[in-house]
Design a protein that fits this description.
Elements: H1 11-30, H2 41-52, H3 58-65, H4 71-78, H5 87-93, H6 96-109, H7 111-121, H8 125-136, E1 145-146, H9 147-156, H10 161-176, E2 185-186, H11 199-205, H12 214-227, H13 243-249, H14 253-267
Organism: Methylobacterium jeotgali
Domain Transglycosylase SLT: 41-236
InterPro entries: Lysozyme-like_dom_sf, MltB-like, SLT_2
Length: 269
Amino acid sequence: MFASAWPRMTGPRMAALLGLAAAVCAGSAEAAQCGNTAAGFEAWKREFAEEARGKASPASLAALATTSYSQATISADRGQKSFRLSLDQFLAKRGGNVIVSRGRAQKQANAALFASIEQRYGVPPGPLLAIWGMETGFGAVKGNVNTLSAVATLAYDCRRSAYFTDQLYAALTLVDRGVITTSTRGAAHGEVGHTQFLPKNVLLYGTGGSLDSMPVALASTANFLKGHGWRAGAGYQPGEPNFAAIQGWNSASVYQKAIAILGQRIDGQ
């Protein structure tokens, strides 16, 4: 039945079809195979390195070879339960009142810095301070997971392999630039710095220098928001023009609303 549904093909047409099929199969064979346990990670690294030749430098691939499967990363990826809380529960769990209090103090202590950032990027202090406080407690907890291992693990892991393969290529570029090394450590998903930038966002929105520098991290965060459509002087609460830029920072609805609320309280609006 199925055979009779296809037209008979001979000569050049058949040769072309067979050639296309061979190319597709070859492409599939070259792709590094994802996995869900540590067992296949070393084989995946070798496959990925072959696939990446010509796209990544030998030095960055040598750095990739030093990575190990990060169980801490997988545990964190599977355990993001706080995003399922109500807004009030989420704010309480993340210490919303403390973020506001400390954010206001930081705003006063670094008034010149925030004025300069707002003049350049159009982003007021409130949302930047809310993000900084939410992400790392104002730099107190930036993470202690090996960054390359975290990103490589998630590129290998089947859950979001395509997304983190993109991040891995960005990380390898940052290795070449000296921004990331084999000893760089940060959050469990490969985020680095005061406001927790993923490698691709460092490439796209980093303003130069290390994101472990507070002024660089805050300027880069403002640049990210501007790059996601932030308009100077417009509101950033849900339904207002700049809320979409906050949505670009994190996909969790409860996180987005928390940043908007805390930022508004820090800005005293």
